[in-house]
Fold:
Amino acid sequence: MDQGATVSTLTEAGDSPRSCIAARVLAHPDPDRVGEFVPLFDHKGGGVVTMSRLTPEFRRPDGHLSAPLASPRITRNPLDIERRGEGLVLRYRAEMPPIEVNGRPLLGERVFSEDDLRDGLVVLSGKDLALWIGWLDLVEPAAEVQGMVGESTAMRRLRQQIHRVAALDVPVLLRGETGVGKELVAAAIHSYSRRAGAKYVAVNVAGVPPTVAASELFGHRRGAFTGAVEERKGYFVQADGGTLFLDEIGDVTSEVQALLLRAVQEGVIQPIGGGTRQVDVRLIAATDSDLESAVARREFREPLLRRFSYEIRVPPLRARRDDIGILFYHLLRERLATMGEARRLSREGGDGGPWVPASYVADLVRHDWPGNVRELANVALAFAVENRDRPRARVSDELRAMLRPRRGPEAEPPRASESSRDLKAPGELQEEDFVLALRAEKWSPERAAKRLGISKSHLYKRAASIGVIRLAKDLSDAEIRAAVESARGDLDEAAERLRVSGRGLRLRLKR
Structure:
C-alpha cells in the first residue's frame, strides 16, 4: 500500500476511525474471515490504497487487527482504490483473474459517485473473494445483543438503541418491513430489561378476531358466557410483571384498538365476568404499516399511537448490504449443523478452495431482499439442502431463481451466468415455472407475473388450471385457523403454508 498517498492512520494499528470508507469481506477462501474490514479513507482523506493478497491489513469485526487477505487463491495483481472528490475510482490493469464491480467487468478504471458509495460497491475478484466497499460509521462501540448478527452501521446503531431503551421500562413501537426481525428486537429488549426474569408473551394481535378479543386479551371467568367451561388468563395477565409484545398492531380492528387503548392508558383490565384488576406490563408493539396515514384515514386511533413513547426503526436488509455475507454464512452454518454437515464451512487448506462460490455471495448482496432476513433464511436453507452431500457447492437454476437481480445502471448488462436464463415464451411455461415464481415472490400473483414476463390475467388462467395458485378470499375459516395456529400466529408463515400472499391473508382476516 502506498502509505505516503493514503490516509495511513486508517490502515495502521490504533483506534478505528469515527466514519470512513471501508472494505468488508463478503466471501473468502477461509469462511472465518467473512465480516472482517479495513478502513480506507475518512471524510477528508485522499490518495490511493492498493489492495491485493498482501496488503492492506484487515481487522476483525471487533476492530482488532487480523491480517492481509493472505490466501494463495487470491491474486497478487493489485486493485487500486483512489479517492477522487466525493467518490472513488477503481483501477485494475490485469486481465486475469477477472474483477467485477456490481456485476460488470472492471477493465482499466471506472469512476463511482458519492451515491454509489452510500449504497456500497460489490467487488468480485476471481472465484474466491468478494468485497463490499462503502461508508462505515464506527462512532458507537459494537454493543453485543445475543442472536443479532451484523456489523454494519445500521446494526450497530440498532443494538445501541436496544441497550438504551431496555432499562427504561417505556412502551416501545418497532417499525420495519416484514421479515426484518422485529420479533427478535422485542425479545432482546425484554432480555436486557429489569423484567428479564419474568414472563415474555408475544401475540399477533392482527390474528385475534374481534368477537373473542376481550377474552384473548383480558381473560374470562368460568361460566362468563356459553362455552366458558374453565377460567382463562388473558395475555395481559399472563405477562403481568413482564413484557407483552403485540405484533402487527397496525392491522388490528377498531374494536380491538379500543380495548387496547383502555388497558394501555389505565393499566387496568377487566376479565369477562370478573372485576377489574391492575396489571404491571411493559408493552412493545410492532408494525410494518404507515400508522400516521392510517390515523389520517381514521383507521387507527391516534391516542393509541401516542402511548408508544419510544420508536425504533428496524432496518431492511438492503440498507445493510455489508451484513449479508456475515448473515448468510451464519444462517448456513445453523442449517448445515442440523443436517450434520457443519464441516462444510470449516477452514479449507491447500488448494481445496471455498465451499460456497464467492460469485453467489456477491449475487446475494446485489439482491433487493423484499422479504428481508426471513427471505435470506429461506435461501440459506435451500442452499444447504441442495448441496449437503457435495464436496463443493453448486448454484442450481432453482437457487438462482430465488433471487431477483437489482436493476440500475451498474447492474447491467447481466453476467453471462445470468443472461443464459432468458425468459421463456408463455406457451413454454410449465407447472414448476409457476411454482418457483410464486414461491420466490411470496405467492404474489402480480410480482410472479412480472418475474415470468407474462400478464397477470395469463398467470391466473394458467396457474389456476394446474392448481398452483389460490386466493385468500377462497379459503375456509377452518383452513385459515388451522394454518395460523400451526404457524403460532406468524401470518407470513401461515401464508406460505396456505400458498397465498401475506397481504391477501391479512385482508381476509381483517374482514
